[in-house]
Design a protein that fits this description.
The protein has 278 residues and is of the alpha+beta class. It is 20% helix and 26% strand. It contains six helices and twelve strands. Helix 1 packs across helix 2 and helix 1 packs across helix 5.
Length: 278
């Protein structure tokens, strides 16, 4: 496959609709203003080439007609962001993902899979990853666990990277912090694609974190309930980071379909990116 075809294959999603976005130079709350709409026709290779050539931006709807996804995204709208630091944090956690700059200067964190997986299972695990990297309130795509396409429903689309690929600002981040070319991005996507089983089994609970001025902190263990049949698969909305010798208190967070998740936290120990409870 050539680069256009590889790019289209990487973002396979809803077959009968896609998104289109026209971007203006105006900004609101740090984001570029844009006019977006869902078009009820399939993504074509012609549309992908138009996107990569900077003619018309295109978006893909990750959830397909079977309520499954082959890619998913964390959409972080905070400015400014250190994308290289986010990429390092994910690699430290051994989470296979590709970090890209969004059109507004935020981050799109892409996850790619070797086959389609349940949109609900992806969202469960993605919310856990989002909390561990410190952005528990970010948007997650697919935004739905289920769409009723029989009655005409479609999911939300995500604007794709590499608009105007030759001089794009929507690029992926390489391990050295530099911008990836389109081909380098596709190579990253291929090399970091994993099976759905491996994704939901990612163990984030043994991670370590550095807080400025405090050095390495001990490992954090989260006792999670059961979700969707996967033991120890919890939705952690806030992570507490405990330093040896400090007093500990226990806080709990709950989700609609599992028991409370208990974890230790200490006021003042979290770094500035740790999310507050949802």
């Amino acid at each position: 496959m050539n680069l256009d075809e590889r790019f289209m294959a990487a973002f396979e999603g809803f077959k009968s609709a896609h998104g289109q976005t026209i971007i203006s130079e105006e900004r609101r709350a740090g984001k570029q203003k844009a006019q977006s709409r869902t078009v009820r026709t399939p993504i074509t290779l012609e549309l992908i080439r138009s996107h990569l050539n900077g003619v018309k931006g295109v978006g893909s709807i990750p959830i397909n007609e079977d309520n499954k996804c082959k890619f998913g995204v964390l959409d972080i709208d905070e400015y400014p962001l250190d994308l290289a630091a986010i990429d390092r944090r994910l690699r430290d956690l051994e989470v296979p993902a590709v970090v890209c700059r969004s059109k507004s200067g935020g981050a799109h964190i892409y996850f790619f899979f070797t086959e389609f997986m349940s949109a609900g299972e992806f969202r469960d695990k993605a919310s856990e990853i989002a909390a561990y990297v410190g952005y528990g309130r970010c948007e997650i795509f697919p935004k739905q666990e289920q769409v009723l396409h029989e009655r005409g429903d479609v999911g939300n689309f995500i604007n794709l990277p590499y608009f105007d690929a030759e001089q794009t600002l929507r690029h992926a981040i390489l391990e050295d912090g530099s911008a990836a070319s389109l081909e380098e991005f596709l190579d990253l996507a291929d090399s970091r694609a994993i099976t759905p089983e491996a994704f939901v089994s990612l163990n984030l609970r043994g991670c370590r974190r550095r807080v400025q001025g405090m050095g390495a902190l001990p490992e954090l263990y989260v006792r999670a309930g059961h979700s969707r049949g996967h033991p120890q698969h919890g939705d952690v909305r806030r992570c507490g980071w405990v330093q040896e010798g400090t007093a500990r208190d226990m806080e709990a967070t709950t989700r609609r379909d599992q028991p409370a998740v208990l974890y230790p936290s200490v006021a003042g120990v979290r770094d500035r990116h740790d999310p507050e409870p949802a």
